Automatic annotation (TrEMBL):
<dbReference type="InterPro" id="IPR004597">
    <property type="entry name" value="Tag"/>
</dbReference>
<keyword id="KW-0234">DNA repair</keyword>
<keyword id="KW-0378">Hydrolase</keyword>
<dbReference type="InterPro" id="IPR005019">
    <property type="entry name" value="Adenine_glyco"/>
</dbReference>
<dbReference type="Pfam" id="PF03352">
    <property type="entry name" value="Adenine_glyco"/>
</dbReference>
<dbReference type="GO" id="GO:0046872">
    <property type="term" value="F:metal ion binding"/>
</dbReference>
<dbReference type="InterPro" id="IPR052891">
    <property type="entry name" value="DNA-3mA_glycosylase"/>
</dbReference>
<keyword id="KW-0479">Metal-binding</keyword>
<dbReference type="GO" id="GO:0006284">
    <property type="term" value="P:base-excision repair"/>
</dbReference>
<keyword id="KW-0227">DNA damage</keyword>
<feature type="binding site">
    <location>
        <position position="5"/>
    </location>
    <ligand>
        <name>Zn(2+)</name>
    </ligand>
</feature>
<feature type="binding site">
    <location>
        <position position="18"/>
    </location>
    <ligand>
        <name>Zn(2+)</name>
    </ligand>
</feature>
<feature type="binding site">
    <location>
        <position position="176"/>
    </location>
    <ligand>
        <name>Zn(2+)</name>
    </ligand>
</feature>
<dbReference type="InterPro" id="IPR011257">
    <property type="entry name" value="DNA_glycosylase"/>
</dbReference>
<keyword id="KW-0862">Zinc</keyword>
<protein>
    <recommendedName>
        <fullName>DNA-3-methyladenine glycosylase I</fullName>
        <ecNumber>3.2.2.20</ecNumber>
    </recommendedName>
</protein>
<feature type="binding site">
    <location>
        <position position="180"/>
    </location>
    <ligand>
        <name>Zn(2+)</name>
    </ligand>
</feature>
Length: 196
């Protein structure tokens, strides 16, 4: 069995996510928006809880189309609060609507949402070299700066820890531990992206 990061349980869904998604540079606006909203939904819960409901979230939130979500009414929010296939937390559900509105404002003034997110790392992935899971931070000065700016821009559930989790999962940083079999694979992807 390949060596993985220590946070990955013996669960096929989680292993697939770690092996094929986590840490790989992501540039698609809609995917970055979805990921941000799901990271917010995860607050106080395990990522596996959200990961296993990801398809349910996509269905419930119109495939995370910000233009549709920004127009959600109170009736729609109540419908989502009653949806047993997602986490029925009213504040988290409302945060997705707030985030959609903030996303649309970012689109008006930035090149794209992707450009906005990647600007926090000067459009280049940070390659870390963590020897073990205990060395990997839960937040950094950069994620604190990102959190402060995103809150100013109207985003919700974007504390420094959530922002860092977003940076990790979207490949803004490579936080696979050095001995993880994905570490070198992700570094190769990052170096290819630098010359795209």
């Amino acid at each position: 069995m390949p060596r993985r990061c220590g946070w990955v349980p013996e669960d096929k869904v989680y292993m697939d996510y770690h092996d094929n998604e986590w840490g790989r540079p992501m540039y698609n606006d809609r995917q970055l928006f979805e990921l941000l909203c799901l990271e917010g939904a995860q607050a106080g819960l395990s990522w596996l809880t959200i990961l296993k409901r990801r398809d349910n979230y996509r269905e419930a939130f119109d495939q995370f189309d910000p233009e549709i979500i920004a127009g959600y009414t109170d009736e729609k929010i109540e419908e989502l609060v009653k949806n047993e296939k997602i986490i029925r937390n009213r504040l988290k559900i409302r945060s997705v609507v707030s985030n959609a509105k903030a996303y649309l404002e970012i689109e008006k003034r930035e090149e794209s949402f992707s450009s906005y997110i990647w600007s926090f790392v000067d459009h280049e992935s940070i390659i870390n070299r963590w020897p073990s899971l205990s060395d990997v931070p839960t937040q950094t000065e950069l994620s604190r700066e990102m959190s402060t700016q995103m809150k100013k821009d109207g985003f919700k559930f974007v504390g420094p820890t959530i922002c860092y989790a977003h940076m990790q999962s979207a490949g803004l940083v490579n936080d696979h531990i050095v001995e993880c079999f994905c570490y070198k694979k992700v570094n190769k992807l990052i170096r290819k992206e630098e010359y795209r």
